[in-house]
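Hey,
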Amino acid sequence: MKTLEDSKAILELLELETDEELLSEADHNIHKLKQELGRWELQKLLSGTHDNKGAILTINAGAGGTDAQDWAQMLLRMYTRWAEKQNYRVTLAEISDGDEAGIKSATLEIEGRYGFGYLRSEKGTHRLVRISPFNANGKRQTSFAGVDVMPLLTEEAVQIDIPDKDLEITTTRAGGKGGQNVNKVETAVRVVHLPTGIAVRCTQERSQLQNKEKALAILKGKLLIIAEEQRAQEIAEIRGDIVEAGWGTQIRNYVFHPYQLVKDLRTNVETTAVSNVLDGDLDSFIEAYLKQT
């Protein structure tokens, strides 16, 4: 309101006398007001049960071999940069390195108000088209990565009791490039919910117990969201809700060659500023999706 009152006062002064400095200040204030109004309008669209929560975002390399694993790592950077621009706190909960380059999978915890509300627009398959840096003949390569998003819920909010018989828990060495415990102690934990086939892996905490607790918390959150989205079905029937990261399932195309274009196939929003998008400039895509849905 202060910005609005200041702008009104400046405009009243400008009616009496032209002043370039005051005009510039009024222009700045009006631009700021438009941005704040846009954010307010967008947040009014975030009325889902968990929209105001933070988010857990998981990336999995899909079809495309080494290129897909490299693409998954590019997406990991893109979402990290987006979250940092929103002043969210970002924590890498799990990462599995690729065979030659990139990553096979990674999970980000993004803490901040409306993190899930914004990022639920990103769930789906992301398709990359480029000249492959891993192809000796310099041929064009198409590769895919899948993105899954769920709200970051507190333990108190997740009231789900999972019988021990429904869980398969295994431990492995964390892997990676260094660190005191890496490749020495089995601290990484993988939890599989047998009725649904949902698997969660956590590697980033220092102890096996901490990784187990975090993996179980993420799994419970996933099951809670599935139960809410599919109220009419039994949890054991939900496996078909998972989308294969491959041809015909993509929500967005990122084309580097023969032209540069990022296009969302759900809203038809597109931009040629590919590098900006990969640097976390996702707001136009997110806003269009929220307004459409």
